[in-house]
Design a protein that fits this description.
This protein is an alpha+beta fold. It has 5 helices and 11 strands; from the N terminus they run βββββαβαββαββαβα. The chain starts with 21 loop residues before the first strand and ends in a 6-residue tail after the last helix.
């Protein structure tokens, strides 16, 4: 029954000509540091670079980022990608948030992260990220396709499994994968995880600040795809109490010259500069540590 909740239907208006205009969907991280917001504006021509994209603004009092007396928060485009939902020349735009005076907003963690990345740019830091997540029914409370009363069978057969009795939500996973490829996100793989209705996808290798931009946009695309199936995506590290698998975000970090990377690939351990761990303050600046 749960698999019939999909409401994916062809939008009869997507084929309409836009008269050369481009729909740009601006995305930002709200005051929670975990949730994303977004809205659309019209561009009169297709942008060739981020510099072609105008700054914008929004009401920060509605996103826990300002007071009602001085509610404007500015949006500064930092990266853009092909829009897999609207198609054509339409785009998704990742943005930083700024105060009215142009300084980074207190909730803007990307700005400080980019400063750190720029300081070590000569070392060309590479990142690969494994993002785990859990699917929930549209109420955000009941795990997707779990029994209405009780729990599914013990963990064991679900990891990288196949079959309707072991895997739920594969259509969402496949749609997300294709949508990321279309957008230009460096998605590298996906697999079912240990707990039923829990999945993982990988992004990377990405260099420098591109790591955070692609991760956040890939998360937005996942949540947007899930909308079409009346499914809620959770990045909570422990979504279900008890003996059920948690959901994390694992980071692989590597830096050095191209020769160092070649040796690392050949010898697995390279010169000791490859690691699978949270890389400390730099990553904490861009990725919330409390969830996924």
């Amino acid at each position: 029954r749960c698999e019939k909740t999909a409401r994916w239907q062809r939008n009869p208006f997507l084929h309409l000509d836009q008269g050369g205009a481009v729909m740009a969907y601006y995305i930002w991280i709200d005051g929670s540091g975990e949730n994303m917001r977004g809205k659309t504006r019209t561009l009169l021509r297709k942008p060739n670079s981020v510099g072609d994209l105008p700054e914008w603004n929004y009401d920060g009092s509605s996103t826990n980022q300002s007071t009602g007396e001085n509610s404007d928060v500015l949006l500064k485009p930092v990266a853009f990608y092909r829009d897999p939902f609207r198609g054509g020349d339409n785009i998704l735009v990742m943005c930083e948030t700024l105060c009215p005076d142009g300084t980074p907003h207190p909730t803007n963690k990307r700005s400080a992260c980019k400063e750190k990345m720029d300081l070590v740019s000569e070392h060309r830091p590479w990142f690969g990220i494994e993002q785990e997540y859990t699917m929930f029914a549209s109420n955000g409370v009941h795990p997707y396709c779990w029994p209405e009363n009780g729990y599914p069978g013990p963990q064991g057969p679900y990891y990288c499994g196949v079959g309707a009795n072991r895997v739920h939500g594969r259509k969402i996973v496949e749609a997300h994968y294709r949508a990321c490829l279309h957008a230009g996100i460096k998605i590298a793989g996906s697999n079912a995880e240990v707990m039923p209705s829990q999945w993982e996808y990988q992004v990377g290798p990405c260099e420098g600040i591109e790591m955070g931009d692609m991760l956040w946009v890939s998360r937005w695309i996942l949540c947007r795809v899930a909308e079409e199936f009346n499914v809620v995506i959770s990045f909570d590290p422990k979504p279900i109490d008890g003996d059920w698998n948690g959901a994390g975000l694992h980071t692989k970090h590597q830096y050095g010259s191209d020769e160092t990377r070649r040796r690392a690939r050949c010898h697995k351990k390279g010169d000791g500069k490859t690691s699978k761990r949270n890389t400390g303050n730099t990553l904490k600046l861009m990725i919330p540590t409390g969830r996924g």
